[in-house]
Design brief:
Ubiquitin-like (UB roll), mainly beta
């Protein structure tokens, strides 16, 4: 099944080179793949996977190892962001 995968801010460097300008990659994933399984091949450091949304809904860290997606879902991830 296909999903849309979006990485923001400094995480865009973990996307394939062709996707870095748009921060979006279309992925083919297994229906039983969890969020953690989907992001593992990208090598994202766990401490940088801060805000995880599926279709705009926040996914708690405890649920990321069991939450699966549906065809057409959008998985978006932000790192921690500091500001002043």
């Amino acid at each position: 099944m296909q999903i849309t995968f979006k990485l923001f801010a400094t995480l865009t460097e973990y996307l394939p080179p062709a996707s870095r300008n748009t921060n979006i990659a279309l992925l083919d994933v297994a229906p039983e793949a969890t969020i953690l399984q989907i992001i593992e091949p990208f090598g994202l450091p766990a401490n940088l996977v801060h805000l995880v949304l599926v279709n705009g809904k926040y996914i708690n860290p405890a649920d990321r190892g069991t939450q699966t997606l549906k065809p057409g879902d959008v998985l978006a991830i932000w790192p921690p962001i500091a500001g002043g």
